[in-house]
UniProtKB/TrEMBL annotation:
EC number: 2.5.1.9
Species per Swiss-Prot/TrEMBL record: Nocardia albiluteola
Name the record gives this protein: Riboflavin synthase
Keywords, sorted A to Z: Repeat, Riboflavin biosynthesis, Transferase
PANTHER family in the cross-refs: RIBOFLAVIN SYNTHASE (PTHR21098:SF12), RIBOFLAVIN SYNTHASE ALPHA CHAIN (PTHR21098)
GO MF, any single term: riboflavin synthase activity
Protein's UniProt keywords contain Transferase: yes
Each Lumazine-binding repeat, start to end: 1-97, 98-203
Signal peptide range: none
KW Transferase (keyword) present: yes
Function (record text): Catalyzes the dismutation of two molecules of 6,7-dimethyl-8-ribityllumazine, resulting in the formation of riboflavin and 5-amino-6-(D-ribitylamino)uracil.
Pathway: Cofactor biosynthesis; riboflavin biosynthesis; riboflavin from 2-hydroxy-3-oxobutyl phosphate and 5-amino-6-(D-ribitylamino)uracil: step 2/2
Residue span(s) of domain Lumazine-binding: 1-97, 98-203
Length: 206
């Protein structure tokens, strides 16, 4: 489990294609400092397992085909910056919200609206996920726990992605995460609040 509070900006330094998978080497001095084989680290919101620690500041991880297809991980180039977070400790504060690291789908940054002290970012939402997104609720975008500041529908939007959400980025988020510099058109990983999905399931069975 994670909190959606990014600890470090890392870098993809190597990628080895495997059969229906890929092995990535990711540099992140902080998250690697106490990493061991089998530990979980969220990379742009995707929960990945540490295979090995390399040179003290890098770790390798295997990404299966389903994850490559369902997230933006497979589209990252060498040198790409990524948001990194170690699994939450039971004795730590929950600064964000409960994040599983299980990406539900991807969206696209469709606009950025800079303000004096923050920036409003609009992201398209796949049709199947829109019902779980509510204003003032929580959303995870590329592993970042954010509050939804607005929702809506664009009738002229891309089929299957006409719904959108907005988040407001404070200076700290802009400076310390990949979302701060991601241009319009960037594909981002989305994880909706797991509580909404549990409630829906219970209502269906009731």
């Amino acid at each position: 489990m994670f909190t959606g509070i990014v600890e470090e900006l890392g870098e993809i330094v190597a990628a080895e294609p495997l059969a229906d998978a890929a092995r990535l080497t990711i540099r992140g001095k902080l998250v690697t400092s106490d990493a061991r084989h089998g530990d979980s680290i969220a990379v742009n919101g995707v929960c990945l397992t540490v295979v090995d620690v390399v040179d003290g500041d890098c770790f390798t991880t295997d990404v299966m085909g389903e994850t490559l297809n369902r997230s933006s991980i497979g589209k990252l180039d060498l040198g790409a910056r990524v948001n990194l977070e170690r699994a939450a400790a039971v004795d730590s504060r929950l600064g964000g919200h409960i994040v599983q690291g299980h990406v539900d789908g991807t969206g696209t940054i469709v606009s950025r609206d800079p303000q004096e002290n923050w920036e409003v970012v609009r992201v398209s939402v796949p049709e199947g996920l829109a019902r779980y997104v509510v204003e003032k609720g929580s959303i995870t975008i590329d592993g970042i726990s954010l509050t939804v500041s607005g929702v809506g529908v664009d009738d002229a939007g891309e089929p299957g992605h006409r719904d959108w959400l907005e988040v407001s980025l404070i200076p700290t988020t802009r400076q310390l995460t990949t979302l701060g510099a991601a241009p319009v058109g960037t594909t981002v990983n989305l994880e909706v609040d797991i509580i909404a999905k549990y409630v829906e399931r219970l209502m269906q069975r009731g």
